[in-house]
Amino acid sequence: MPDVTLKKLAELLNLSISTVSRALKDHTDVAIETRQRVKQLAAMVDYEPNTYAINLRTNLSREFGVIIPGIANDFYQSFISSLEEEARHNGYSLIILQSGDDPVIELENLRRCKQNRLAGIFVSITSKTNDINPFLRLVEQHIPVIFFDIVPSFEACNKVCVDDAAAAVLAAETLIAQKKKNILAIFGKSQLSITQKRLQAFNETFSKYGSDAQVCCLHSGSTAESFETVMDHLGSPHQYDVVFCMSDEILIGVMKAAQTLGLVLPKDIGILAISEGIIPTYYFPRITYIETSGFKLAKMAFSRMLACIAGSSYVQELKSEPVLIAGGSL
Amino acid sequence: MPDVTLKKLAELLNLSISTVSRALKDHTDVAIETRQRVKQLAAMVDYEPNTYAINLRTNLSREFGVIIPGIANDFYQSFISSLEEEARHNGYSLIILQSGDDPVIELENLRRCKQNRLAGIFVSITSKTNDINPFLRLVEQHIPVIFFDIVPSFEACNKVCVDDAAAAVLAAETLIAQKKKNILAIFGKSQLSITQKRLQAFNETFSKYGSDAQVCCLHSGSTAESFETVMDHLGSPHQYDVVFCMSDEILIGVMKAAQTLGLVLPKDIGILAISEGIIPTYYFPRITYIETSGFKLAKMAFSRMLACIAGSSYVQELKSEPVLIAGGSL
DNA sequence: ATGAAAGCGCTAACAA
DNA sequence: TTGTTAGCGCTTTCAT
After folding, report:
1. Most exposed of A196, A297, B257, B280 (fewest Cβ within 10 Å)?
2. How far is the CA of B39 from the C1' of C11 (A)?
3. Do domains A61-162+295-321 and A164-293 have the same CATH topology?
4. pLDDT tens-digit series, residues B43-82
């Protein structure tokens, strides 16, 4: 059975194409019984409108592009999962494009979004993206672009991201409230802006509260490195009462080390992390963490997108408030 | 700057639309210098062809649909990640649709794929899908459908899945080779076909080799349940030398229990799992597992799809061979 | 080597 | 209430 079109329906019903089109849309100026007839036949022959024709004609699209470094990441997973739901409920679909953290592929993906005349684009830029003009050019052509998670520092664009400073402040406040005195804090690569923001806010909070806690801040580029770091610092007799992990990647390495050393949480050592919320549930006791989940962020990004489509030219930076999720590790 | 079209380019260059179209495609019967002129202007004004117009005209599409229960799952994550790469390298994009394990939404998603006249569809059905006729109808309309992972039992369709029986056989053989004598084996919900296949193959292998091992097979519907199961069986003095986990979900619960009980791997207890390969790396020592990763499956599914598009009406069921990945838990 | 024209499936202004 | 028509941006056959 080849494709059914309006034309074919019209012929079958001895009606004009436009009447059929209107009937299918329940236009009130089509006789109610004609509407019935049309819809009945359409259902019978499994008619589905051709989206390409509609989009061409109306110059509108019901698809959003999502450009991310890679999908294999708890954050993007929860973000996309949530975004897809929002999109579907509003009659939109999502086109996923991975850049592999390569700015060249990212640009190529952007080109495809443009060719597809998408309704809008959500993008988390690569760590090496330094020219955001191609994105801004799309905005000029009325394709809204919402940056999320990893966003450019450029001011005049729509951004939705985790409040890194607030998360670190909350972490520090939690440790202070729990009267931790000897803290081993492990942060990510020092050149990353996320590391810098979290580290600075973390330290400032201890100063601000006039805390007398000893805080040893270290950097770790990977799970393996944070494993080594903990093995070095907690392997022999030590004075630490808690380890703070800036990210899931670090948490995994820390937990491996804790297991290797046979440390019992929270008796032998406390653990506090900033996390997407999946990894902390993999251990016993469940790790206490500051949540920076993609779910909430996706909802914010989506409603910002709808506003842009509705015509808002107002540009803003939204931050999602971090929350403390208590486990049994502290 | 509004949308640039062929028409606009033609006007600007004092050429006809068809010549511009041909020039952009490097048609040899356009004067080489005309081609240059056209391409230069096109690049200057940032011309991008309108995909909707092309697809409408050619009745072709460069988009695949992917319908899955939910993206938040290590298996689908690796599958989609890999599939997207393959697609991109071949000039295709992926539209992701989640069914939330709800057959109604699944059907709705299928309808959208049809409306979008997609080039093909990859689908992992919900656990409650019992009517696959809507899928088969698409195939009749020349939209290839490749089922993956969770597939219908119906014979005449393209399926790509993990070889569940082979994975369980390999697991059993590994345990036999390691001379494990007292095995606690935890499987998923007994009504799931994946559980049945794995359980049967597992047990048959012990019989086949005439093993004298004591195998205690239990079922667990969740991470929490497998945690309880292990607490019950390994909490007090016991004779088990290894725990086998049918899935990542179970593995997580088992590892939580092992940590709670302070068991040291592999000294106090051995662990063997069937896994997507992410979770086993979260523990120390790394868990030994049988890999059923989505990466390989995606490549198989994609090449099958290309074959279908190229006109192969041949239908087949492909299985991905499981592999043993040695960690330090056995 | 270039152009004119038809048509993909649909919508919407205008006519009747 | 229904039909006619033009046109969205592009490809492609046929003419020149």
Report:
1. A196
2. 33
3. yes
4. 999 999 999 999 999 999 999 999 999 999 899 999 999 9
Smallest CA–CA distance, residue A273 to chain B, in Å, is 15
- Burial per residue of A50-86, b for 16 or more beta-carbon CB atoms within 10 angstroms, e otherwise: bbbbebbeeeebbbbbbbbbbbbbbbbbbbbbbbbbb
Are A301 and A146 within 8 A, CB to CB? yes
Partner-chain residue, chosen from A52, A77, A259, that has the shortest CB–CB distance to B56: A52
Across B204-287, the runs of DSSP E, i.e. the strands, are 214-219, 242-245, 270-275
Burial-class residue B14 by CB neighbours within 10 Å (0-12, 13-18, 19+): exposed
| pLDDT interval class at A293 (50, 70, 90) | confident
Q: Which two tokens stand for residue B56?
A: 């409408």
- DSSP for A268-310 reads T-EEEEEE-SSGGGGSSSPPEEEE--HHHHHHHHHHHHHHHHT
Q: Supply the pLDDT for residue A244.
A: 98
For residue A245, the SS3 value is strand
A-chain CB neighbours of B49 within 8 Å are 115
The domains of chain B are located at 6-49, 61-162+295-321, 164-293
Query: For the purposes of burial, counting CB atoms within 10 Å of the CB of B123, is it exposed (0-12), middle (13-18) or buried (19 or more)?
Result: buried
DSSP state of B290: E
Q: Indicate if the pLDDT at residue B322 is higher than 90.
A: yes
pLDDT tens-digit readout, B8-41:
999 999 999 999 999 999 988 888 999 999 999 9
pLDDT in tens, A301-329: 999 999 999 988 889 999 999 999 999 99
Residue nearest to nucleotide C12 (CA to C1'): A18
B23: exposed, middle or buried (Cβ count in 10 Å: 0-12, 13-18, 19+): buried
The domain covering B61-162+295-321 belongs, at the CATH homologous superfamily level, to: Response regulator (3.40.50.2300)
Selecting from B95, B140, B284 the residue whose C-beta is nearest the C-beta of A1 gives B140
* Amino acid, res. A112: R
How far is B152 from B105, CA to CA, in rounded Å? 17
- Using 50, 70 and 90 to split pLDDT, how confident is the model at B235? confident
Query: What would the two tokens of residue B44 be?
Result: 């200057």
How much is the pLDDT for B311?
A: 87
Q: Does domain A164-293 have CATH number 3.40.50.2300?
A: yes
The one-letter amino acid code at A166 reads: A
B98 has a pLDDT exceeding 70: yes
Q: How many Å lie between the alpha carbon of A259 and the closest alpha carbon of chain B?
A: 6
List the structure tokens of B137: 């109808």
Distance B116 CA to D1 C1' (A): 32
Per-residue confidence at A2, pLDDT binned at 50, 70, 90? low
- For A328, nearest residue in chain B (alpha carbons): B260
